[in-house]
Amino acid sequence: MWVKALDMILEKMKSSGFNFSHVRAFSGAGQQHGSVYWKEGASQILNNLSPDLPLHQLLKGCFSVSDSPVWMDSSTTTQCLSLEKAVGGAQHLANISGSRACERFTGNQIAKIYSQNPEVYAQTERISVVSSFAASLFLSAYAPIDYCDGSGMNLLQICDKIWSTACLNACAPGLEEKLGPVVPSSSILGSVSPYYIQRYGFSPDCKVVAFTGDNPASLAGMKLEEGDIAISLGTSDTLFLWIKEPTPALEGHIFCNPVDSQAYMALLCFKNGSLIRERIRDGCASGSWDEFSKALKCTVVGNDGNLGFYFDVIEITPEAVGIHRFNRDNNKVPDFPKEVEIRALIEGQFMAKRIHAEKLGYKIMPRTRILATGGASYNKEILQVLSDVFSAPVYTIDTANSACLGCAYRAIHGLVAETSVSLAEVVKLAPEPKLVVTPTVGADQIYQPLLKRYAELEQKVLYSPISSHRAE
Fold first, then answer.
1. What angle do CA 308, 249, 179 make, to 5 degrees?
2. Average pLDDT, whole number, for the chain?
3. Axis-axis angle for helices 2-15, 130-139 (nearest 10)
4. What is the model's pTM?
5. Which residues have a Cβ under 8 Å from the Cβ of 81 and sit 6 or more positions away?
6. What is the pLDDT of residues 352-393, one digit of tens each?
7. What's phi and psi for 35, nearest 5 deg?
8. Cβ proximity of 164 and 96 under 8 Å
């Protein structure tokens, strides 16, 4: 399906008159964690493609697994437990690979295939992630996995940027040979293959820059720099962080940085995002965002010490569920006045994000910017709380197709990366984000003790089966 989709896109571009000969370089992105299994002998077919036929016809017999595992697969809990045990526990695995064992991560998916279908694994000569698979199609040869996407597999030593022997051995035998090498994310992998030159008119000088994952490509598309935060306020809330000195934890993920091989990116996902904000809006503000915003404006920064945890579904970061309210004396209370409830929700959501970002090694810097996207980023009062909690200015940016834009930026960067030119320098003329709010004077002094209290109270509400009645 992926191969046929590429055929269709290129044919549409060709029929529309797109001039492929003008393309100097390109890169791409794929769903993180997914994997593709090339059958023995596939490389010979890949190396000898006839430009007279579409790609999906030429490659239809090249795969040992017809349905690629993707990020939505959560069937590998057994393999995750085995991997953590093999390397000395969940935290030790996080120290090695940037994350504790995750069901969707590639290493655990490979381990499941080896365990359940050893003959299929034996017939596989190369395993690609989705991004390196796509790059392989354009090279007509197996593309290496880039550092960044490689660090979303539970297999890469993120500090040394080499495969972890212990992790590989825990997943399947002979795995390093099947994965091939890893390379810096800005690497030029080679020139586009003759198939595309002859069939579509690409220039023989057109370069293929290493492909990476979709989340890392979005970081590039949003032009994040050291100290910046990107936060997507959607159905779930997601944080992207640029980090120099990571401290991997049991929550969140550390990846190699896609635009700076000496840095890292962190990703945190919070399941209770816009749906709980909308529920509290409906219950406390008559379903009106204007009323919701007025409540945030008429309540004081810090909410007079009232703190709340709002998890309608079991949260990922941290693992907790239910609604938990605490007054200024840390006593649990059954309810808050409506305006206090609204501020407690928003302050609590953003305090949790800052606390868990800092656990992963994030440090707010004088030049830190917060780039906000998603539905709630249109609400200035919500962004004001975000700015106050993080003590940093908040900007908004049009990130429609940010992963695709990031691929274009990375392609340009790839052409000059070996000269030590930064991505920021390459894209300095690109549109800048729009400043929306700056921190309220004195807010930092109010939130510093509140953040400490919130972190301590969070430990009291961590998930246990007894407290799960709300989610049910």
1. 135
2. 95
3. 50
4. 0.90
5. 101
6. 999 999 999 999 999 999 999 888 999 999 999 999 999 999
7. -140, 150
8. yes
